[in-house]
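Ticket 4471: requesting a sanity check on a complex prediction with pantoate. Repro inputs:
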Amino acid sequence: MQVFYDKNSFSNYIQSQKDQQKTIGFAPTMGALHAGHISLYEEARRDNDIVVSSIFVNPTQFNNPEDLEKYPRTVEDDIKKLEDSKLVDAVYIPRVEDIYPNGMDRKHYDFGGIENEMEGSARPGHFDGVGTVVEELFVQVNPDNAYFGEKDFQQLKIIEKLVEGLDLKIKIHGVKIHREKNGLAMSSRNMRLSEIEKETSALIFQTLKRVNEWFRVISVPEIKTRVEEIFDSENMDLEYFLIAEEGTLKEVDFFSADDDFRAFIVVNVGNVRLIDNLHLD
Ligand code: PAF
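Returned structure tokens:
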């Protein structure tokens, strides 16, 4: 596996792969890698000649400076995990000036309104920051296929809109959420949880599974009340829970006959913000 720490050497590598007409599969990350990331590379390996990873903690997608500061940075470990996986041909670890040569500004995007739902309203500017870094990485990596985890389902939809809006020839693949044994969705932020917090956080997925049992059996408002009661009774800080239509990500208050629905949840455990979601069927 080759490791690139600057744009020039990485661009030369990409150009040589393109010259050989190799297809490129890409999954960007912010590091602190776990089995969920590795599953992105497993999929990428199946579809492409070359698999590329990137590690870059993107400042413009953090609306809370403390969150940016606390974000785990474990580059040496990450490189080892990628190497050991034997799935990745190259990892790009750019410097800030490789991504933001003209200063750290966010671009502003219109993603058709989905940027204003859920995480968009909870974290103003977040999706502009994600769009800015992913657009730049797509230009530099020039992939045929790109892979994103469904844990950040709204982000996945935003990336699909980004590619459509810019008319890029990149196929976006959503990859199923990877979970710990107790159901907790794998996330780089889990590193900041104590063992006890990891155990209590199992309630998040347990609750989502109960919501799925209640789907089309009881009303949406009643489901919301029950979820709030569950977290209240455990003294856990539920930031939001809602059910949205999968295409628009707009919150619904009843289940129409033909649409697809997904439940979304955010819970703060200590000072760690955990997000999860489940397709309802
Ligand atoms: O999901 C992430 O890790 C980040 O949002 C991404 C897509 C790498 C952009 O910084």
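Notes from triage: The chain has two domains: 2-175, 188-280. Leaving this open until the requester confirms.
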